């Protein structure tokens, strides 16, 4: 038994911890190779099946990449793992869709302010083009929903904050059902036009590099969205 095995830590968990510590200690970066299964087996004094299981668990967490049977490599940060956990939490009613929207509001009021300051001209033009596409899209159409999600994702990417962008991207599978539900609360043509105009305003604040106006516009956007959802829930 390894001498530094923590209390109540399984051998697989021990190997996972040792691999993660090796990555940090050796200052490995994305794409760098790790030692082989045999190397960790000998170094840690555990069986090869234990190391293989630990590698599989780390790959599932997107910490290492073991694709195609090659030597394990350090993985890049991905939104997919968090996305799976969030979807599970919503399905099992550990968190609510409303809590997702409240969290998005906290994050996105800041990401848009950062995007207004840090965006490139190309990013600003892309965000504006997406908003204009929303204005042309048919009401309630899949195209409109896709553009809405793409706009918020593009704003997050333009913020140059990788962590915020990945967290916001992790919401995307949930938004594929939540965003259509939010649009259905816009029952009149006037309500639909108002939310389209708000998305155009978001794009304009980024184009003008006005961080304060961008933050305020996003806050107002979520005020309307969350308010409409609560009103819809009360009616039902």
Automatic annotation (TrEMBL):
Q: Start and end of every HTH gntR-type domain?
A: 9-77
Task: Report the leader peptide range.
Answer: none
Q: Which domain of life is it from?
A: Bacteria
Quote any Pfam family the record assigns: FCD
Say yes or no: keyword Transcription present. yes
Q: Does the keyword 4Fe-4S apply?
A: no
GO molecular function list: DNA binding; DNA-binding transcription factor activity
Q: Which Gene3D superfamilies match?
A: GntR ligand-binding domain-like, Winged helix-like DNA-binding domain superfamily/Winged helix DNA-binding domain
Entry keyword set: DNA-binding, Transcription, Transcription regulation
* PANTHER family per record: TRANSCRIPTIONAL REGULATOR, GNTR FAMILY, UXU OPERON TRANSCRIPTIONAL REGULATOR
Q: In its UniProt entry, what is this protein called?
A: DNA-binding FadR family transcriptional regulator
The organism encoding this protein is Brevundimonas lenta
